[in-house]
């Protein structure tokens, strides 16, 4: 996994930094929130707002292990 460091760790991460980490590292929203030490609800809110605008956060195709099978 790539490590994304904030330019100034004393400030809150930007939505873009959190999204980049989520999409590139194939982690859950909870893991992403824990990495940046922010509320999981904040991350969920950002993702939900972007999805409503037609810009959903996605993992690379087939990367998440908890996806349901079509069997």
Task: Explain the overall architecture.
With 71 residues, this protein is mostly helical. The protein has helices at 15-25, 29-36, 40-52. α2 crosses α3. The longest helix has 13 residues, at 40-52. The N and C termini lie far apart (30 Å). 10% of the residues are buried. Mean pLDDT is 83; it is low at 67-71.
Key phrases:
mainly alpha, 0% strand, disordered C terminus
Give a nutshell description of this structure.
This protein has 71 residues and is mostly helical.
Describe the SSE topology.
Blueprint: H1 15-25, H2 29-36, H3 40-52
Helix pairs in contact: 2-3
Give the SSE order as H and E letters. HHH
- DSSP strand content: under 5%
The number of helical elements comes to 3
Query: What's the total count of β strands?
Result: 0
Instruction: Quote the distance from N terminus to C terminus.
Output: 30 Å
Structural class: mainly alpha
Helix content: 40-55%
Radius of gyration: 13 Å
Shape: globular
Largest sheet at a glance? Answer: none
Average pLDDT for all residues: 83
């Amino acid at each position: 996994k790539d490590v994304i460091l904030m330019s100034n760790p004393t400030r809150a991460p930007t939505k873009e930094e959190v999204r980049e980490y989520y999409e590139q590292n194939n982690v859950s929203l909870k893991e992403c929130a824990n990495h940046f030490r922010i509320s999981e609800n904040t991350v969920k809110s950002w993702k939900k707002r972007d999805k409503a605008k037609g810009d959903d956060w996605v993992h690379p195709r087939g990367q998440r292990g908890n996806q349901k099978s079509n069997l």
